[in-house]
Amino acid sequence: MDALWDHGPGTIRDIINRLSHDPAYTTIATVLRNLDGKKLVTALRQGHSTRYEARIPREEHVASVMRHALESSRDRTASMLHFIDTIPPTDLDLLRNYLRARTDGADGGGR
């Protein structure tokens, strides 16, 4: 997925060339077929080859993984608070500013 997110759509050979190691062609083909089955990539036939592209941006995927993790928690509040306790101060500032803007927008204060 990183190869597709970082460099855009590509064939299996393109993706292999983007990697720092040299995996087997069939390995990458299998991974892409599995990702297509999970609706994470789209396979586009072009002549005799197939180009693959990510269906959603990396950030949207990460948010989905975070939602899934929270949904699987037995104590959502504790999980959220533990996560928030571990994030760096700059991310806390980002979160505060976002929540402040979101609250101001809900009150008609605008964003």
Automatic annotation (TrEMBL):
**Signal peptide region:** none
A Pfam family hit: Penicillinase_R
Transcription regulation keyword on record: yes
Q: Which UniProt keywords apply?
A: DNA-binding, Transcription, Transcription regulation
List the InterPro entries hit by this protein, alphabetically. BlaI_family, WH-like_DNA-bd_sf, WH_DNA-bd_sf
Can you tell me which residues the record assigns to a coiled coil? none
Recorded family membership: Belongs to the BlaI transcriptional regulatory family.
Protein name stated in the entry: BlaI/MecI/CopY family transcriptional regulator
From which organism does this entry originate? Citricoccus parietis
